[in-house]
Amino acid sequence: MKSGEVFSEQGQKWYEPDWWKFGDGKTYFRHASGEMFVISKALARFVSINRSILRTYAFDDVSTGGICAGA
């Protein structure tokens, strides 16, 4: 979870024109951060059925690519 400063002054690099909609106007609401993967129901079923023959790897992009390539 993370939160961060809302840049409310025009001209700032990450200026947010709707800054007043977020949190207390100074910080964003706490929210999840990081990557998220969305897969189809068919792919989830494939992974579930074939979990005994699928492998995981050290990096998520390799693992995801490996699963998609086998589908």
From TrEMBL:
Localization, per the record, is:
Golgi apparatus membrane
Protein keywords: Glycosyltransferase, Golgi apparatus, Manganese, Membrane, Signal-anchor, Transferase, Transmembrane, Transmembrane helix
Q: Which domain of life is it from?
A: Eukaryota
What terms describe the molecular function in GO for this protein?
hexosyltransferase activity
Q: Which organism is it from?
A: Ambrosia artemisiifolia
Q: Which Pfam families match?
A: Galactosyl_T (PF01762)
Gene Ontology cellular component terms for the protein in this record: Golgi membrane
Keyword Transmembrane helix in record = yes
Q: Does the keyword Transferase apply?
A: yes
Name this protein carries in UniProt: Uncharacterized protein
Q: Which InterPro entries match?
A: Glyco_trans_31
Residues of the signal peptide: none
Q: Which cofactor does it need?
A: Mn(2+)
Family, per the entry?
Belongs to the glycosyltransferase 31 family.
Q: In which pathway does it act?
A: Protein modification; protein glycosylation
As for membrane topology, the entry says: Single-pass type II membrane protein
